[in-house]
Amino acid sequence: MVFQKEITVKQKPRGFHLITNEILLQLTELKNISAGIANIFIKHTSASLTINENADPSVREDMEIYFNRAVPESDARFYEHTLEGTDDMTSHIKASILGASVTIPITNGKFNLGTWQGIYLCEHRNYGGSRKIVVTVTGV
Amino acid sequence: MVFQKEITVKQKPRGFHLITNEILLQLTELKNISAGIANIFIKHTSASLTINENADPSVREDMEIYFNRAVPESDARFYEHTLEGTDDMTSHIKASILGASVTIPITNGKFNLGTWQGIYLCEHRNYGGSRKIVVTVTGV
Amino acid sequence: MVFQKEITVKQKPRGFHLITNEILLQLTELKNISAGIANIFIKHTSASLTINENADPSVREDMEIYFNRAVPESDARFYEHTLEGTDDMTSHIKASILGASVTIPITNGKFNLGTWQGIYLCEHRNYGGSRKIVVTVTGV
Within a domain: residue C139? Predict the structure, then answer.
């Protein structure tokens, strides 16, 4: 059994955002899967998806602090692809470090995440707009 | 055909560890799959999984050296989420850079890895405990 | 429905290369899948795969600039695994940051990528040779 759905995630400010529930609300079909995987894929190159801590909001803030230091906008002078600003090429770099998709096990109709895990949308642009995500579920 | 199994990987010291065989020993069902994929997913946010070199133990040591320099604990002063120590937030960061899962092709009942590839458990905490991994196999 | 194919990607110079079409030309079976996922897996530990911008070649050049600065070869003195040169351990590190595989949704016989997305082969070695990739498609 395979099902697929393109969902739109509302515009978020630059930073890391927990979107597990925003995805689940649009994925009621999940309850019909007893075992399988969900591939969650973002159709953009300046935002990304990752799995991280779902409880303390300061983790999301600290992630933003880290990635701004690891991929600093002050380095934009080394890059050519900066037409849209100093957050242009740095966003592409962050997107490849974090990745365009996460793949999550499904067990008994639910994402089989650890107690402390959630899905993050990582918005790397200052003004990123809404983001399109394709969820593909394969299972039985 | 889908099968799924939650396995426990024994506590490891902080660092990078080759766990291909520890997984395979708990995955005898693999021999029934002629073609497919295995998603190997760690249910934690301060340890991660990656694919890398399976022969020279110094690669695993050098990986630890690199990641400790790229995500230094001395930067913990910039973070808020440090209640559990200087290896708290840095572990979450490393986990997102490396990723919570790897997806590997299966061919003729075996992981179809390159000659030099193995599965690493990346333990980012000083005392991480045992780790839970969900393996989901989809194939024919 | 599952199909699997091992393809060889021609030797590329060190750097980031758009290989979407090189893969698609060897994957004509894709047209038979209405919904599913493709796992594209590289069988090497010093080259990697990622999804990024498909239009402006300077993105690929800027990626190479970034990763050479983030994982500098001048740091090879900190590593033990340097028998094959200063690009040896650094290539393994870059490979784990970027990842050995990408998983992409398939819709109506095509990769369901965003308008600006393409598949990159990231060649981290100075002389990497041709690279083997296993594509596994699961779908209906």
Answer: no
Q: Contacts of residue B66 in chain C, CB cutoff 8 Å?
A: 71, 75, 78-79, 89, 93
For residue C4, tell me if it sits in a domain: no
Reported ipTM: the value is: 0.98
- In chain C, whose CA is at the least distance from the CA of A43? C114
Ramachandran region, residue A93 (left: φ > 0; alpha: ψ -120 to 50; beta: rest): alpha
**Confidence bin at A72 (pLDDT 50/70/90):** very high
| Helix, strand or coil, per DSSP, at residue C66 | helix
Give the tens place of pLDDT for each residue, A1-24.
Answer: 999 999 999 999 999 999 999 999
* Count of domains observed in chain B: 1
So what's the pLDDT on residue A38? 98
Q: Is the pTM of this model over 0.90?
A: yes
A neighbours by CB contacts (3+ pairs under 8 Å): B, C
Distance from C-alpha of A11 to C-alpha of A30, rounded to nearest angstrom: 24
Which of C43, C81, C93 comes nearest B58 by C-beta? C81
Burial of A34 (0-12, 13-18, 19+ CB in 10 A): middle
Which residue in C58, C104, C114 is closest to A81 by CB distance?
A: C58
Q: Which residues of chain B have pLDDT under 70?
A: none
CATH number for A61: 2.60.120.460
Asked if A5 reaches chain C (Cβ–Cβ under 8 Å), the answer is no
